[in-house]
Amino acid sequence: MKDLVKRGLGYLVLSLSLCLGLLHANLSLAADVTGQVRVTDLTLVSSARVSRTAFEYIYRIAVDNSGGALTGVTANVTTPLTETVIIDGSVTVGNLAAGASGVSSDTFTVRQDRSKPFNRSALVWTVSGTSANDVNGVLLQGNPTDAAIEAVVDTDTKEYFGPADFLLMQSGVSAARSALRVILSPTATVGGVNALFESIDARIKISLDGVGIIVISFPPLDQNRNCRPKWRRYAPVLKSRRCCPS
Q1: Is 243 within a domain?
Q2: Do 23 and 54 lie in a common domain?
Q3: Which of 17, 126, 140, 242 fits a disulfide with 151 by CB distance 3.0 to 4.6 angstroms?
Q4: pTM above 0.70?
Q5: How far is residue 100's CA from residue 243's CA, in Å, rounded to a whole number?
Q6: In a domain, 177, yes or no
Q7: Are residues 152 and 86 part of one domain?
Q8: ∠ CA(231), CA(196), CA(157), 5° rounding?
Q9: Is there a single domain that holds both residue 83 and residue 68?
């Protein structure tokens, strides 16, 4: 099977880990941080009448983080009230520094029966995010001059990715915020690979013994960040790469 993987992929590409075949997509790296991050206020962005009694309202949210730094924060809203219908209840907040407050650029949408008052206190929020200190994993072990592929061993940190770990880039491509599928050059060395990973605070999350295709994790990208770090320095390490797949 490993030989088949090597032949089929041929060490040709490095891409954002979107086709997470090595990951179990039903599990998520993000944790429930509702007790740490509170939605403190709503800001009305727009409203529109959709029927005689129904109006749609679009809001941004203000949040307060009472704990440590978080990445990939997402807030989801529900309500038990029949007069308030959640049209789009997911709000991407992004990264939050320790003890920080902020207002989301993303929004949520509700449809309200205006024959009854809109009850903000009946909105139930669930917030998820990842600790900024949770970029765990390993580096390659061995002599710095050893072949990197020979140093790859079975690794699985049991941390996986869900919807909150992705973002929509300006190009319109969905990309993992903090994961790359890396295909090593056959001539790469342990020292060269580790130097690259350490330069971007990356660690190996998933790998198979002797296979030069690994999944790494690193501090998350935001939507405006240039996804082209200085890869040219690492040409001896990576056979080739493509930052954002088409």
Answers
A1: no
A2: no
A3: 140
A4: no
A5: 31
A6: yes
A7: no
A8: 120
A9: yes
